[in-house]
């Protein structure tokens, strides 16, 4: 069975269908010669803004998303940073959204299964940027968001992914 679904968004608009992942790892890219995985370059949307067009051109080889025994890892294969937010990257009971910047060539554990189990027992989670899913990861290409950026919400980012993990 699948371990996650991937949704691709441009600002507030989901583009294309959910991409279901069955393999242990998946490439999510714009342009990858002989690429195998989720090709964002093939998704069509009428009337893209110039900002989205410029950001899409920076995705390149994108990311490799990998399910490992300790959690889910993202390896940045792009030539530009990616920005990541997940419930297991946040500091427990912290009111501030934490977004991690991952430089090209680096990886990060975007979801920790053990921490996730502990967080299931935590309540009173209130996020200003929309619904909260304890099993989802959000990754933006080339543009950051949150308290340290001009974009406060991920829906202000031109190109981003929502990784919906299966329980």
From TrEMBL:
Classification via Gene3D superfamilies: 2.60.200.10
Residue ranges spanning the membrane: these are none
A Pfam family that the UniProt record links to this protein: MH2
Cited CDD domains: MH2_SMAD_6 (cd10499)
GO biological process terms, alphabetically, are: anatomical structure morphogenesis; BMP signaling pathway; cell differentiation; regulation of transcription by RNA polymerase II; SMAD protein signal transduction
| Keywords carried by this UniProt record | Transcription, Transcription regulation
According to the entry, every stretch annotated as the MH2 domain falls at 3-167
Q: Which GO terms describe its molecular function?
A: I-SMAD binding; transcription regulator inhibitor activity
**GO CC annotation terms, alphabetical:** heteromeric SMAD protein complex
What is the name of this protein? Mothers against decapentaplegic 6
What organism is this sequence from? Tinamus guttatus
């Amino acid at each position: 069975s699948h371990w996650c679904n991937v949704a691709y968004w441009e600002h507030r608009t989901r583009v294309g269908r959910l991409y279901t992942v069955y393999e242990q790892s998946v490439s999510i890219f714009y342009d990858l010669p002989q690429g195998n995985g989720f090709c964002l370059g093939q998704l069509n949307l009428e009337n893209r803004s110039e900002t989205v067009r410029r950001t899409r051109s920076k995705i390149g080889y994108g990311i490799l998303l990998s399910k490992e025994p300790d959690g889910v890892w993202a390896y940045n294969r792009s030539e530009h940073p990616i920005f990541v937010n997940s419930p297991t990257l946040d500091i427990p009971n912290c009111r501030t959204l934490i977004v991690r910047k991952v430089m090209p060539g680096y990886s990060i554990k975007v979801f920790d299964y053990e921490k996730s189990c502990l967080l299931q027992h935590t309540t009173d989670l209130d996020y200003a940027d929309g619904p909260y899913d304890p099993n989802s990861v959000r990754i933006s290409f080339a543009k950051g968001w949150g308290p340290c950026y001009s974009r406060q919400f991920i829906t202000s980012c031109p190109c981003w992914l929502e990784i919906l993990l299966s329980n």
